[in-house]
Amino acid sequence: MVEKWSRLPRGQHVPCRQEVFLLAIKAITQCSFGDYILDEDQVAKFWKAYDTCWFDFDKRQRGDEPNPGSDREKKFNDAKKYMYDILAAVIQVRRKHPTIENRQMLVDVMIENSIPDDVMQCDAMTYVIGGFHTVGNWLVWTLHFVSMYPEIQDKMYQEVKDKLNDTGKVIPDNVAQLVYIRQVMEETLRMAVVAPYAARYDDEKDVTLGGYVIPPGTPIIQALGVGYNDPSIWQNPDKFDPDRFSPEKVAERHPYSFQPFGFAGNRKCPGYRFAYAQVATVLANILLKFQVHHVDGLGVKAMYGLVTTPQNEVWLTITPRSDKNKEE
Ligand code: HEM
Predict the structure, then answer these.
(1) 278 CA closest ligand 1 atom index
(2) Which residues pair with 213 in a beta bridge?
(3) Where does the chain bind heme (predicted)?
(4) 257: helix, strand or coil
């Protein structure tokens, strides 16, 4: 993506959501299935099928079920079958050629552990569902916010330069050093309410919460977004301020005031470290090379659902960092 952006004429508008979502679906399908889907057209086809199911599922969640035998139901089933056929093929190929250059992907690990094929298909799909729109939207919102605040962007750039020695290469050993970038990422999760809620119910036994006994099967919903706007926890909650997440400020707050990856102990989001590493990597690489600017007059409104997404495309312009460095 950085290479592609480097070739763009100065001042050209970049469709940030389109670009970043393509990157996010490539990342999650490759990490789950290995190099089975590398071809850009195939990624786009998978994404289209995925979106058909995702938006239909979003409607179903709001009580809008398709009529049996309707075109809508057929479209949903065809898209789902397309994805599951790919998953079945991935498993067959990976079984014959388990690892590629020591890069073990989710499917390789499941094959090694003799997970039945149908469970593997569902688990691989669950990871795509868990890791595509979430990471894609986290990135789009972060780029949108940093495009509004050049001084925050400069600080992030400086951190990447200082901590990663100009390489942009984020690895498990150095990701923890990107303290300010993490603050910006967390403030984005709060402001954009990327995941608006987490929900659980206990299958078997009563749960006692705050003195109330909740019977089995009762949904317990944690309205994450409500807490993120609570002025008793966050002063001026409408202001984008990454300093709220400085280590000192975090230590002052109750840990439950910010749990963007869920509240369910061992069953909280299993992808959160991966998501942090992925978003930090992409930001580090973009900001090392470019300054991103918002396009005057284009507002960005949020559309809430399973994941919060901008209502329309988020257009940005970019200028190579080298231009600014020359000016200075
Ligand atoms: C912005 C990034 C992400 C956010 C905000 C997010 C948020 C969440 C939340 C709130 C939950 C519910 C947890 C609960 O009920 O307490 C969850 C569950 C889950 N997430 Fe994520 N997630 C993100 C990225 C990812 C990624 C990258 C993956 C996979 C690679 C992933 C896979 C999953 C799965 C499989 C579950 C279900 C866990 C279970 O039921 O045991 N998520 N996530």
Answers:
(1) 27
(2) 208
(3) 269
(4) helix
Ligand 1 atom at minimal distance to the Cα of residue 31? 30
CA distance 73 to 70: 5
Quick check: 194 and 184 in contact, CB under 8 A? Answer: no
Q: Which of 92-106, 126-140, 284-298 has the lowest mean pLDDT?
A: 92-106
- Residue whose CA is closest, atom 21 of ligand 1? 269
Tokens of 65: 């079920």
Of all protein residues, the one whose alpha carbon is nearest to atom 8 of ligand 1 is 261
* Segment 34-55, tens digit of pLDDT: 878 878 888 999 999 999 999 9
Q: Output the CA 148–ligand 1 centroid distance in Å.
A: 28
Residues listed for the chain? 328
Q: Is 275 in the pocket of ligand 1 (CB under 6 A)?
A: yes
DSSP summary character for residue 244: G
And the tokens for 105? Answer: 């992907």
Say what the pLDDT of residue 164 is. Answer: 84
Question: What letter does residue 235 receive in the DSSP assignment?
Answer: S
Q: What angle do CA 262, 175, 250 make, to 5 degrees?
A: 50
pLDDT attached to residue 16: 95
53 annotated as a binding-site residue: no
- What would the pLDDT profile of 60-91 be if each residue is shown by its tens digit? 988 999 999 999 999 999 999 999 999 999 89
From the CB of 107, is ligand 1 less than 6 Å away? no
CA pair distance 47, 136, nearest whole angstrom: 12
Which residue among 134, 202, 221, 306 is best mutated to probe the pocket of ligand 1, counting the most ligand atoms within 8 A of its Cβ?
134
- Residues sharing a CB contact under 8 Å with residue 17, sequence separation 6 or more, in sequence order: 136, 140, 309, 310, 313, 314
Q: What is the pLDDT of residues 268-285, one digit of tens each?
A: 899 999 999 999 999 999
**pLDDT mean over 108-137:** 93
Q: Give yes or no for residue 315 CB within 6 A of ligand 1.
A: no
